[in-house]
Amino acid sequence: MKNYFSSNFRLGVLGGGQLGKMLLTETQKFDIYTVILDGAADAPCAQICNEFHQGSLMDFDTVYNFGKKVDLLTIEIEHVNIDALIKLEAEGLEIYPQPSVLKIIQHKGKQKDFFVKNNIPTSPHKRFSSLAELKKEQFNFPFVWKSAQFGYDGTGVKIVKSESDINLLADTDCIVEELIPFKNELAVIVARNKSGEIKTYPVVEMEFHPEANQVEYVICPARISEEVALKARAIALKVAESFEHIGLLAVELFQTANDEIIVNEVAPRTHNSGHYSIEASYTSQFEQHVRSILNLPLGNPESKVAGIMVNLVGEEGFSGNVVYENMAEILKMDGVTPHIYGKKETRPFRKMGHVTIVNNNLAEARKTAEKVKNTIRVISK
Amino acid sequence: MKNYFSSNFRLGVLGGGQLGKMLLTETQKFDIYTVILDGAADAPCAQICNEFHQGSLMDFDTVYNFGKKVDLLTIEIEHVNIDALIKLEAEGLEIYPQPSVLKIIQHKGKQKDFFVKNNIPTSPHKRFSSLAELKKEQFNFPFVWKSAQFGYDGTGVKIVKSESDINLLADTDCIVEELIPFKNELAVIVARNKSGEIKTYPVVEMEFHPEANQVEYVICPARISEEVALKARAIALKVAESFEHIGLLAVELFQTANDEIIVNEVAPRTHNSGHYSIEASYTSQFEQHVRSILNLPLGNPESKVAGIMVNLVGEEGFSGNVVYENMAEILKMDGVTPHIYGKKETRPFRKMGHVTIVNNNLAEARKTAEKVKNTIRVISK
């Protein structure tokens, strides 16, 4: 094992947003010198990493030159210049997740093809390189359209219900999927290190708002049968093994009407669905990511207590300097921990933070989560 | 409530060592802008706070000028220039713990007098202003001698067994205490905010090495009867109430042969005996300190799981660039979390970090703690 702790070892991270910030908590805990690259001078990580570099993650030279300054490179966002990573890797830099894996996952068409090739259950799909090409095809409505690249938090995904909807689609490289009716949207985080050690986190469940069709709560453990949970973990594990992925992989899954598990898509990094782990798990997803990329033994992914996560997003109708209204009210509630990402300006639906609710009893945590959701407001002055 | 989160509010902290570093984890989580003053340019906090100022904590002008740059001031070490704090407070700055409380606690003679005056059980003591004055007195041996000021981690404390030992004592303001034989050394952390809300953490127990007479494990919960535990928490609460202390107060206690609880001494801050709380408690002592000084509602101090803390101190015979030998071995063990403070140089007995072991079952945690203790070594290259 290399000497990572209070040493001259330099860990590089592409991206300095909230995922990077929560990763820094872990590198600080281990005193691993961490260098961050991000496009924004006021990125959440800027003031609290050992060294901050400002520059575009999509620019070849910027990423390449940054890579030359570190001993091992990882990412907190997958939209980065992969060509620079490939060159750096060829020149001997360790990069996890591997550029070859990122290249596949970054492109939803290649990602789906990979699932099919590796017998990973997923909804049937077709790839198109332009809107014109797509228009030549006959479809059963409704279907799911996804931009092949750069989608984020639901952007770049549309449910197409009729011919007229097709004309509203962007003219871009895309995939079309069968719309699978599902009972539950689930996720499993998998960690794998260079030695091939691999561990899956418990299954989490996304609970949707009954009308708004938005995820309201991420719940761990998912309220599903043990049989379905084991199937979900086994499939997620298979996905990470197929990629020979090193680092954290978040596998988003659907539980179908007849309890089949199919893979929706994957993210090659720490993930919103794993934020509960900071308070609830023996090893948080962020510590686990550090362990996996440095080829340290993986930690216990099981939970101490049940955990529920509520995203804090900017309220509609408010833009400007953020105010977290009623913070004192939620801090009064048992087992409630707010995480504030450090973005000074709120905008409608901008992810500004999250709140974790933990309790020995999941039903109690669920009640508190609803109170939190109905109490705190992300507004502006 | 003031707007502390992602706002222009500036929290000042006197001291940038490991306690400050673990506090930063919490201020980062809440995105509270934190400014640190420390004498050492390479203090553990230097690179990871929002703003770092280098300067002596004992220098009036340095502390006063630093205080003028922040909206609220706290400490991570009690050895600071109190006169500067008194002036800042008189000029309207909020300082927690209060300078008047720090002034008493900073001086062990005043601290003991305070206990006596407030009917807080403690061992009988006498104060002396010099060694010459002490020598005039007749003593029963053995007794405990404590330097009145600036003791740290056992420095400034001596067990005096004979007349000849007296000649080895420093010529300084000091106290002499009766040596009380005790069954257990315990500690209770109390949090209190400006509104008067007060919460005690569970009692922790110091387990000593059978021969070396050094604390080996800090164990939560202490393996004592519920009756003794409740008495210890009640006495600790009374101490904090008596001081009208705002912030965290660590109360060190002895359980005597006949199960009386007496107060040994107090520390007006986060404390080594509360490090287990980061992994084991619903609210870590560092988050609780932030909540208490900002007059936020206090969090739940109870534990999710049992926790044991092992200090990582520099091994005898090694000085220089630190290496944590066998880190991979301890990371393999379940529920084990190392904290590395970020001191580049090890020296014999220097506090370099700590390891927390958590488990649902305290006996299991105790077994793992012993394995950790026997495995990891803090040495130099």
TrEMBL record, chains A, B:
Signal peptide annotation: none
Record's keyword annotation contains Transport: no
Annotated GO biological process: 'de novo' IMP biosynthetic process
UniProt GO MF annotations: 5-(carboxyamino)imidazole ribonucleotide synthase activity; ATP binding; metal ion binding; phosphoribosylaminoimidazole carboxylase activity
Family annotation (InterPro entries): ATP-grasp (IPR011761), ATP-grasp_carboxylate-amine (IPR003135), ATP_grasp_subdomain_1 (IPR013815), PreATP-grasp_dom_sf (IPR016185), PurK (IPR005875), PurK_C (IPR040686), PurT/PurK_preATP-grasp (IPR054350), Rudment_hybrid_motif (IPR011054)
Catalytic activity: 5-amino-1-(5-phospho-beta-D-ribosyl)imidazole + hydrogencarbonate + ATP = 5-carboxyamino-1-(5-phospho-D-ribosyl)imidazole + ADP + phosphate + 2 H(+)
EC number: 6.3.4.18
Annotated residues for binding of ATP: 108, 146, 177-180, 185, 264-265
Pathway info: Purine metabolism; IMP biosynthesis via de novo pathway; 5-amino-1-(5-phospho-D-ribosyl)imidazole-4-carboxylate from 5-amino-1-(5-phospho-D-ribosyl)imidazole (N5-CAIR route): step 1/2
Keyword Ligase set for record: yes
Domain ATP-grasp: 112-294
One Gene Ontology cellular component annotation held by this UniProt entry: cytosol
UniProt keywords, alphabetically: ATP-binding, Decarboxylase, Ligase, Lyase, Nucleotide-binding, Purine biosynthesis
A Pfam family matched in the record: PurK_C
Alphabetical list of PANTHER family matching this protein: PHOSPHORIBOSYLAMINOIMIDAZOLE CARBOXYLASE (PTHR11609:SF5), PURINE BIOSYNTHESIS PROTEIN 6/7, PUR6/7 (PTHR11609)
Subunit structure: Homodimer.
Function according to Swiss-Prot or TrEMBL: Catalyzes the ATP-dependent conversion of 5-aminoimidazole ribonucleotide (AIR) and HCO(3)- to N5-carboxyaminoimidazole ribonucleotide (N5-CAIR). Catalyzes the ATP-dependent conversion of 5-aminoimidazole ribonucleotide (AIR) and HCO(3)(-) to N5-carboxyaminoimidazole ribonucleotide (N5-CAIR).
NCBIfam families: PRK06019.1-5 (NF004679), purK (TIGR01161)
Family: Belongs to the PurK/PurT family.
HAMAP family: PurK
Record-given protein name: N5-carboxyaminoimidazole ribonucleotide synthase
